Amino acid sequence: MIHWQNTMLSILIPTYNYPISALVASLHRVLDNFDLAYEIQCLEDGSQLYVEENKAACDSYDHTLHIISEENKGRINSRKRLAQNAKYDWLLFLDADVEISNDDFIKTYSDYFDKSKEAIYGGCSYASEQPETSQLLRWKYGKAYEEVNSSVRNKTPYKSIVSANFLIKKHTFQHIISEIKNEGYGYDVFIGALMKEHKTKVHHIDNPVLHTGLDENSEYLAKVEKSVETNYRLLNEQKINTTQNSLLKLFKSLKRLGMVRIVSGMFNTFRQPIKRHLLGNSPNVKLLQFYKLGYLCAISLDKK
User: I need a surface site. Which of 138, 180, 181, 193 has the fewest CB within 10 A?
Assistant: First the structure.
């Protein structure tokens, strides 16, 4: 048994229509190796599926709370509520659709409890085997742009903000998240910009979870579009001027060069063929990056 004096950890899992029995079990398996004051809180955000199953899983363990919100309020509000309810000063946020296979998962994070960092991002990985064609786009994007070594992520620490798996001090999280008033996809970019603005001490490590909950191709592409819309709105409201996000930096360069209309025209001409390719059986994620840039250029002109 390994002991950590005065260390307390709240593990927080926002959940929407996803089974979490295996995740809760794996967390307790790795936590059993430590003398650590902890709690696990799982919040159902208006879920219609797996609610009773998830409740039974949580009720079968000590220090594990299952909370039900009848109304779907979105991931930002779920995280706010979980943080507010948390008993301890260190918060470990995990998405419901991840798996933990490393028995040292908690120990690796615990090495940073007494250090000066305020937010630690462990990263995520994806299965080496290709999924079925209907989920290929999300898997390919994750392999190419999210499964990144910590040495690379630490070069631009506010760019690689993937919220599926991170440890953060409670007061830091509440301070950052209080500045986000809306819901939607694409807010990791805003969180990164806020952390950069506030000079939050962010550090990336190699302590990944396995992301298993892959969206269907069409569902993922719709989320990408929503994310781009969110990012444009935040950029237009001058809320993410300090972003390290590559897409937004490139868009700003195009604006300075007067090329937004040209890129928008190319996007509108080729949008449907590109979309068919992305939803097909061999999507190229570099085309997805162009799709995002073109869509951003197009909506920036539409909203003038």
Answer: 181
